[in-house]
């Protein structure tokens, strides 16, 4: 069945994307398989009507662009982010205690810490190296087997463990890596892992950006397979769905998919949504296929629409009181329009109406989320992109449980729901 094949692609993408650098590389691979041409930001671009191209920045953010054969007057844009909360290694990561080599970590984003204990952990990320001939390069590293663990303290030694005790990320979260190991052993391991993955001996490690990741593979579960459980559903699920929709679209309209890094830490970076990446691409596209001047760029942006896709909080059966009674999205009941009067989400009535119409046309149910008035609200790349560009924007997402946990849960049917709606958006001939 097509749905089962899509879910298998999703599970494979999640498994092979432990970091933003891996997710971006995997998205680029699928785009090239579909005929998209890679652009380099340092090259002069030569764009033609009908082109399908993509470009990356920092190897962790990506923009894919489908240009129409007809004049470019508007773009249907979908935005997501490649990063997820977790544990990143400190630069001088190696530390020893009680006869064990451990890794010093810092918390990336608003991670739920408790689920990280007693997990089989691998290591992945990007390593900057010097080749024997003196060349410098960045290489992805994937230690795709259990090499570390953060063991819990026995309850006999902490009788308050189940009473809401706070966790100290500095003293309680460093994972154990090697018994009897010292600082030099971690450097040796890095060299061994790089040689094993890339088949190159004699590399000198200059620096790295590495993260721990759960080795439990993504899975479809539930008696009827109604659930998906995995690390990094927030927000690789949106990256995958946006890419599926782009590749399934009919190719007649101007379409753009952007997946930014650093959303979980505020988006303020060269490749984040608050940075210039998307604006730089739009200016270059407008210069060649649009009206060419600044006024033409504004006209293009204002005629375009952006759907920011980031997962939404599903109603939890054990914590129903954490939702507004009229705004509790259910798993497998369709995508969620996210609304916040204080503009933590970019949705307004006009952009929400467009999405409701798209859902009607695609015969997909639609839901709405608003946080309780006495609780704070998260945010997305939506308001940031709208602020930076001025493009009319709305925020939507697939509902999920356990957001920012090491293992999150979503509904398997919602993958097809949102893919159908976003495909309809990419194919729509007119934008209101």
TrEMBL record:
GO molecular function: aminopeptidase activity; metallopeptidase activity; zinc ion binding
Gene Ontology cellular-component annotations: cytoplasm
Protein name (database record): M18 family aminopeptidase
Keywords of the record: Aminopeptidase, Hydrolase, Metal-binding, Metalloprotease, Protease, Zinc
Cofactor: Zn(2+)
GO annotation terms (biological process): proteolysis
EC annotation from Swiss-Prot or TrEMBL: 3.4.11.-
InterPro entries found in the cross-reference section: Peptidase_M18, Peptidase_M18_dom2
UniProt family annotation: Belongs to the peptidase M18 family.
Pfam family, one: Peptidase_M18
């Amino acid at each position: 069945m097509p749905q089962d094949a899509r879910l298998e692609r999703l599970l494979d993408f999640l498994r092979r994307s432990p970091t933003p650098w891996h997710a971006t590389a995997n998205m680029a691979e699928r785009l090239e398989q579909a005929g998209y041409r890679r652009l380099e930001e340092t090259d002069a671009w030569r764009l033609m009507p009908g082109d399908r191209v993509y470009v990356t920045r920092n190897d962790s953010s990506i923009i894919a662009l489908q240009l129409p054969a007809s004049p470019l007057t508007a773009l249907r844009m979908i935005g997501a982010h490649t990063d997820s909360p977790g544990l990143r290694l400190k630069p001088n990561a190696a530390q020893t205690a009680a006869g064990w080599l451990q890794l010093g970590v810092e918390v990336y984003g608003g991670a739920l810490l408790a689920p990280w204990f007693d997990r089989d952990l691998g290591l992945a990320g990007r390593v900057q190296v010097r080749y024997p001939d003196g060349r410098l390069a960045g290489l992805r590293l994937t230690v795709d087997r259990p090499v570390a663990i953060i063991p819990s303290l026995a309850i006999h030694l902490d009788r308050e463990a189940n009473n809401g005790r706070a966790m100290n990320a500095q003293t309680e979260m460093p994972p154990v890596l090697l018994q009897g190991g010292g600082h030099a052993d971690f450097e040796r391991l890095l060299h061994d892992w790089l040689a094993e993955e890339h088949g190159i001996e004699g590399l000198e490690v200059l620096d790295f950006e590495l993260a721990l990741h759960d080795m439990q593979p993504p899975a479809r579960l539930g008696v009827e397979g109604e659930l998906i459980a995995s690390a990094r559903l927030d927000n690789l699920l949106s990256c995958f769905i946006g890419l599926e929709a782009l590749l399934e679209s009919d190719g007649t309209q101007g379409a753009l998919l952007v997946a930014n890094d650093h959303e979980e830490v505020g988006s303020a970076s060269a490749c984040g949504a608050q940075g210039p990446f998307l604006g730089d691409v739009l200016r270059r596209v407008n210069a060649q296929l649009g009206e060419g001047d600044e006024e033409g760029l504004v006209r293009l942006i204002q005629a375009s629409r952006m759907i920011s896709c980031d997962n939404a909080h599903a109603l939890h059966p054990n914590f129903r009181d954490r939702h507004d009674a009229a705004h509790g999205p259910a798993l497998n009941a369709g995508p969620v329009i996210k609304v916040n009067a204080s503009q933590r989400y970019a949705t307004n009535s006009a952009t929400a109406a467009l999405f409701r119409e798209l859902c009607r046309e695609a015969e997909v149910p639609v839901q709405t989320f608003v946080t309780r008035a006495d609780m704070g609200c998260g945010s997305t790349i939506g308001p940031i992109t709208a602020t930076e560009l001025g493009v009319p924007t709305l925020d939507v997402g697939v509902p999920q449980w356990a957001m920012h946990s090491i293992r999150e849960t979503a509904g398997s049917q919602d993958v097809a729901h949102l893919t159908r709606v976003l495909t309809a958006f990419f194919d729509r001939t007119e934008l209101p």
